[in-house]
Amino acid sequence: MWPHCRTWGRLVIVRRGRESRVGVVTEKSDTPLAAEPASLPSAPKLSGKAWRDIALYGLLRLLLFIALTVVIHSIVILAGMANYFPLLISAMLALILALPLSMLLFRKLRLRVTEQMAQWDANRRAHKETIRQQLQERLDA
C-alpha cells in the first residue's frame, strides 16, 4: 500500500501521499533492494528532437509577442498617442493577440510538440505503474 520507497544506505523511506514511514533495512531485505533497481527499466526521456521542437515553439511564440509589441507601439507613436498609450499597454495587447495567432501560425509545430509530449507522458505513466507494482511486491513480501 506504500507506493513510493527510497533507500539511503540502510535507511528506507516509504511514502504514500503526505505520509512517510522510516525504517532500517534488515539483512534479509537488504539483498532484494540492492539487486532489483538494476533490473528496473530506465525512466522515459524526451528525445533531442522533442526538446528542439519545444524550444523552437517557445522561441517563435516569444518572437511573435515581441514583433506584435513593436508593431502596435509603432502605430501608437505614428498616431501621436505615445503619451496616452504606454509601452506596457502595447505589450498587454500584443500578449492577448499573440496566443490565438501563435495557435494558427505555428499549428504544425504545436501539434508535433503535443504529440511528442503525449507519447512521453504515456511512457512515463507506464514506467510509473511498473515501478509501483515492483514496490508493491517488495512491500508485500
From TrEMBL:
Stored Pfam families: DUF4229
Protein name per Swiss-Prot or TrEMBL: DUF4229 domain-containing protein
InterPro entries hit by this protein: DUF4229
Residues that span the membrane, as ranges: 54-78, 84-106
Domain of life (superkingdom): Bacteria
Keywords, ordered alphabetically: Membrane, Transmembrane, Transmembrane helix
